[in-house]
Amino acid sequence: MDHNPNANTNWGDAATNGVNYELTSSGDWIHSQLGDTTVASGSAGADGSTPSDANKITAYNKFADRETVDVSLIAAGPASTTHAKNLITLVNKRKDCMVFISPERSDVVNVATSYNQLKNVKNYVLGLGSTSYAVFDSGYKKVYDRYSDIFRWTPLNGDIAGLCALTDYVADPWWSPGGLSRGQIRNSIQLAFNPSQTERDSLYSNRINPVCSFPGEGTMLWGDKTGLSQNSAFNRINVRRLFIAIEKAIENASKVVLFEFNDQFTRQNFVSIVEPFLDDVKARRGITDFLVVCDSTNNTAQVIDTNEFRADIYIKPTRSINFITLTFVATRTGVEFSEVVSA
């Protein structure tokens, strides 16, 4: 509840001062204070106005300053193109978090054919541009609202962000949130758009991660692409989140060299901080190799004279498996496998 407009007080605060409010099954409020009880009708209430794009932009812009607000995952909720573009601009500027975006409700809910659903979703994402800091999914799921006793359609972006948070908890940010191991979507009664194999391929080639329901296996995220259109390591969620985690950690560590002398001692001290951290990430399968260069080759006399400090960090990220090729060969009973393999 919000507040009691007549007493101008919060419901919870009032309850702590000897006033009690109870909501009955019929929707009425029972007000009790010092033995006196009053029943007030809960009908004809107002839900308030639906938030506009301007309202949403104002709210989400509270996350714009990375120095004062630390955030890793942003769920867009129901998002028009205007709202989605603002969020993409926000994360592109921050460069330390990702936004998760679903198509609009009208693109997939109560749309007659999967062909039109596919076309609508692709057109929506096409209008948002290319970025490695956004993740696009394929639609909406139906959930049961036990408080209102009705079914509701909700965008999947909150679920996908949740899968990334779960991946952080059970593994590390550089693991993929998709697939059978970590990509299970919970509390899904039905998908508004359950793409077929052909439709999944079309979505994936357009940077859209399909969410699918498979008989006997449940509903799951069946992809791990970012919204980057270029063929790059950063077109995968795990690689982008790997670099976000590494960059954030090393940026924080680099603060120790501020206002120190740019000499061999300071540079070696920085390397001694970074290399063990990257060794740990490598041991946890986040990267296959790395190189830290912080010496006189990149901290030249000119760099030192301009009061700068430079470090070059080269990283080989691990890649997730997106495509599997299985070849089955039938052989004669008497054939040696070594002969077949070497042939």
Question: Reading side by side through the largest sheet, how are the strands ordered?
Answer: 4-5-6-11
Helix content: 25-40%
* CATH-defined fold name of the domain at 54-235: Rossmann fold
Radius of gyration: 27 Å
Number of strands: 15
Largest sheet: 4 strands, parallel
> What class do helices, strands and sheet pairing give?
alpha+beta
Distance between the termini: 75 Å
CATH class bucket of the domain at 54-235: Alpha Beta
**CATH architecture term of the domain at 54-235:** 3-Layer(aba) Sandwich
| Residue runs with pLDDT of under 50 for 5 or more positions | 1-14
Shape field: globular
Order of helices and strands: HEEEHEHEHHEEEHHEEHEEEHHEHEH
- Quickly count the helices: 12
Strand content: 15-25%
Polypeptide structure, described:
By secondary structure, this protein is of the alpha+beta class. Among the domains are: 48 residues; 182 residues, Rossmann fold (3-Layer(aba) Sandwich). The chain is built from twelve helices and 15 strands. The strands form five sheets. Strands 4-5-6-11 form a four-stranded parallel β-sheet, with helices on both faces. Strands 1-2-3 form a three-stranded antiparallel β-sheet. Strands 8-7-10 form a three-stranded antiparallel β-sheet. Helix 3 links the parallel strand 4 and strand 5. Helix 2 packs parallel to helix 3 and helix 9 runs antiparallel to helix 10. The protein is globular and about 80 Å long. The chain starts with 10 loop residues before the first helix and ends with a helix. The relative contact order is 0.08.
